[in-house]
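Exam prep: given the inputs below (a chain plus acetyl coenzyme *A), describe the expected output before reading on.
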Amino acid sequence: MTQSGVGIKIIGCGSATPSQVLTNEQLSQIVDTSDEWIKTRTGISRRHLALADESLSELAAKAAASALEMAQLNPQAIDLIILATSTADDLFGSANKIQHLIGANQAVAFDLTAACSGFVFGLSVAASFIRSGTYQNILLIGADLLSRWVDWSDRTSCVLFGDGAGAVVCQANQTEDHLLACELYSDGRQNGSLNLAYQSESQPMVDNLQVARGGYQPLTMNGKEIYRFAVAKVPEVIEKALFKANLQAPQVDWLILHQANQRILDAVAERLQISPEKVISNLAEYGNTSAASIPLALDETIRQGKIKCGDIIVLSGFGAGLTWGAAIFRWGI
Ligand code: ACO
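Solution:
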């Protein structure tokens, strides 16, 4: 238990994905690739893509409503909404739109950006607010529509990404702290390995004054660098979190990693000597959904009835920034 005597418990989860699906076969009609290459190199078969008239806020609101239903919590009981995303509908943020859509009118709401680590970073922020006694009920959402920012002519990156949203409800708990450890890291030296960056063009105004008039350019990625980073740093951060939680790898019941590539999932599990049946993977259906991937996989596994009360779940996110982190919690509603 924490010093203030307040622990954190996850009391509900939910997820949502767009209904439109793009298969590997269909992708091979757009770029020079094949179903066989994508499956063997990544484990991905399909990805769900938002239509032009679908919004991140709406998808996230669906996931949030489902999490609130499982938690049996009225939206008005939510004190804080954290939206982890890199693809907000609005650069000023989308969390407030979601607050309105789900009717959580007592909640403070803000966006948090840490790419594919966003959900784990958000969980740590939520825990801090709860443990400090500031808030009782926090809705944490991970949602991204990277299909809007992928270069659909770049076969080295476009095959990886899909759209989705996942959410959890975190609640203050006086008797037990279910979040056993959280470790977060950033390293800006490798920032150039994965970007969705603003590119400015100079526009003259008056006299010698200029203003930047540009736009965000499609996602660029050095796949090999990210792969190397992930297989080195993810096992390390999980080992640190296990040490903090006073746990050994064999005590882990479920490993839910950011769903980037099946080969990364396998390599991390092998390094930690966690058996493959404990590794959750839904990459084949959704690809990499960025900040949504961990809560989406968590929600699916919970709803399939695989995760039992008291199970130890290890989460780890990694991605652009570069950022990475791990969280360990005990499931039990
Ligand atoms: N179809 C067919 N061939 C391809 C494709 C494709 N889609 N993409 C690349 N190739 C080719 C390459 O051109 C190369 O050909 P060459 O040998 O003639 O030069 C060959 O396949 C091998 O390419 P590699 O880059 O070596 O392939 P690799 O096995 O490394 O797989 C991949 C590439 C899948 C991108 C891998 O490096 C990876 O998954 N990296 C991690 C990426 C990641 O997780 N990014 C997201 C982080 S999360 C976030 O923050 C958003």
